[in-house]
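Try it yourself: sequence plus phosphoenolpyruvate, in.
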Amino acid sequence: MRKKIVAGNWKMNTGIKDGVALVSDINKELKNVTLPSDVEVIIAPPFTHLTFFEQVTDRNKINIAAQNCATESEGAFTGEISAKMLKSAGCSYIIVGHSERRAYYNETSDILVKKTEQVLKNNMTPIFCCGEKLEDRKSENHFNIVKNQISEGLFHLSDDDFTRIVIAYEPVWAIGTGVTASKEQAQEMHAFIRDIVFRKYGKDISDNLTILYGGSVKPANAQDIFSMPDVDGGLIGGAALKVSFVDIVKAICQ
Ligand code: PEP
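Structure, out:
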């Protein structure tokens, strides 16, 4: 069954006290929402918040994710946090290869291959991000960029492992800019992604792949974007930092 997902990426925002207050309010608001069996809600707070979130959220309603993980399992890697630690902190998803990490922390496909492997090895789901920059779209190179990111980062996986992947298409020009891809642009790229996955892994796996759209999704535009047949939900940045994030969840439930 293809899952629908609304995932909030809090990035490096909120302190522990206000973060816990916000997730508690979201949790309370979600009590009034009946989630269909194919819908999941995910929140990815900063690492420091994870264990508190595990205590205050209803895990039937909110899955906890991390925004990143180390390439290695354990050892002398000062400042790093392993997938195994994140699993023990209650995470079931980890975001891999967000464009901010690719751009500011030089995360290459080789690094993302290792991170994805760590996430899968520890029985969590990678949310693998891809997306082109504005200049790539202007030069009509956007399909090539996304195809390369996905093939370099994921196409070494076995069929079994690939069924455990979620892909988030996030055009860099739409992240945090207030500019959203049109629903047609989102659909076009999602259909393209599903097609390259179909060519590599076949119909069953491509039909069941969850592909999220990310880039300035908010309550006002969520339903429009989610109405497209290959858009299976969203990865939400700025709008995930408000209780009205729940309105985006409601949009996927319709
Ligand atoms: C993101 O960072 O994943 C994102 C989609 O951010 P925003 O919703 O703020 O554009």
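One thing you can check immediately is this: The chain has twelve helices and eight strands.
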